[in-house]
Amino acid sequence: MVDAADALRDAQSRFEQRLTRDERVEPKDWMPDGYRRTLIRQISQHAHSEVIGMQPEGSWITRAPSLERKLILLAKVQDEGGHGLYLYGAAETLGASRDDMIDALHEGRAKYSSIFNYPALTWADIGAIGWLVDSAAIVNQIPLQRCSYGPYARAMVRICKEESFHQRQGYDIMLTLARGTAAQKAMAQDALNRWWWPTLMMFGPPDAESDHNSESFAWKIKRYGNDELRQKFIDQAVPQAEVLDLTIPDPELAWDEASGHYRIGPIDWDEFRRVVAGDGPCNRQRLAHHRRVREDGAWVREAVEAHADKTRARGLRARVGTGSR
Predict the structure, then answer these.
(1) What's the pLDDT tens digit per position in 17-51?
(2) How far, in Å, CA of 92 to CA of 105, rounded?
């Protein structure tokens, strides 16, 4: 007779063999508790980031400079809401509760991307967010299409396709401004100055300081380190800035012939830690808005649940009636 310890070791062995073969783990498969917890933490944080990220751009929909720009931005913000839904759904396949995830966000037990705690002050900021922030998101998220957990990997395929549209619209805004009047080009440069360093921080702390790297690599949730992904983004963004004829706000930026990469000056990790800890320019505003909207929408969720209950009850009565004849 196989005892519980032997059964657990056998399940663990099969799980590790599946990862070795690069096979996907699906919701009904056995998985270690740590793997499940790590995925719930990462996927819920990703979902929170998508939804909170709607706020800075959503505030510019009515102020966009043309009807076409309004429609494009509206579509983008709608996409971000959809991304949040995909990701909350992926986390729910792991047994997480949507309400519990959102409660964790509101109570400060869950985080979202630090980048969304900065204000969008001008229309050029919407361009910078699309160009820089969404470019960084694509660099981060393309490897997640190979994540070992199936629902998360599959969600990323669609999300990355939509993010590529978001990046193009942002770059188009920056290109239009950079080729416009002197004041418009100055506005684009100012946005780049303010968003460059926070975007680099988006990739997370240096690998040596990251708390979750070793397990995420071992479980093939994560394929590349923060530093490697950050470098890839820098190498892509610098030539794009040159096309725009805008200046990266880093006097130490230089091409390193030996490594084949751009080298940058020091990142202010103290600022990053302050923002992650809740002391960024917009942390309190972002969470207060999210709480208010969730409370305002409670009646909609209650109505949907009541309708679902009635539908189930009617179905049950119909089945009982059919069975009695």
Answers:
(1) 999 999 999 999 999 999 999 999 999 999 999 99
(2) 16
